[in-house]
Amino acid sequence: MGIGAELRAGLAAAAPFLLSHHVPAERHRCYAPVVFGRRVHVCARCSGVYPGIAAGLVVPAIGPAVLVDLRLVAVLPLPALLDWAVTTFTPRRGTNGVRTLTGLLLGYGYGLGLTVLVSGPRLPVLSIGAVYAVVAGVLVSRSETVA
User: Fold this and answer.
1) Looking at residue 33, what DSSP letter applies?
2) 129: part of which helix (H) or strand (E)?
3) pLDDT 10s per residue in the chain (147 long)?
4) DSSP letters spanning 62-121
5) How is the chain split into domains, by residue range?
6) Could you tell me the CA-to-CA distances from 8 to 2, 22, 126 in Å, in that order?
7) Which of 18, 27, 48, 110 is deepest in the core (most CB within 10 A)?
8) Neighbours of 16 (CB within 10 A)
9) Which of 80, 83, 86, 85 is nearest to 109 (CA)?
10) 104 to 4, 14, 27, 74, 75: CA distances (angstroms)
């Protein structure tokens, strides 16, 4: 097999994960619109995360101070983490609307955190990120033993 054929095969295998990182058994966590006659799976949480990041980067420059509070960086990711944990460790499937909303909050927290990290007190943001990374890492490792 030539390099071109290998590249095409690799791209074809990766294509289903371009807009959604979910395996077929988890496609209920995606929106599935038909685009140009083809069904496309789009991760529900990520569809909220990316606009949230954009808002978190823009609002500090133009929005009211209440929307730029460092405490938001600590609190806004929590609903997404809780929703993910509940739908991973219990039989509850959740809804894509909730996933998108919690993704929007998560994304806003990410964008705001990045803004503060670049322009403000770095240690609190890094500490918040480290706590979430440890908690998420422990939960992900446990989810793999449950699956």
Assistant:
1) -
2) helix 122-146
3) 577 888 888 888 887 777 788 888 888 999 999 999 988 899 999 999 999 999 999 999 998 888 889 899 999 999 999 999 999 999 999 999 999 999 999 999 999 999 999 988 899 999 999 999 999 999 999 988 765
4) HS-GGGG-HHHHHHTTHHHHHHHHHHHHSS----HHHHHHHHHHHHHHHHHHHHHHHHS-
5) 1-43, 44-146
6) 10, 21, 40
7) 48
8) 15
9) 80
10) 39, 26, 20, 15, 13
| Other C-beta atoms lying within 10 Å of the C-beta of residue 110 | 20
Q: How far apart are CA 47 and CA 11, in angstroms?
A: 22
Whole-angstrom distance, CA of residue 7 vs CA of residue 37: 25
Phi, psi of 38 (to 5 degrees): -120, 140
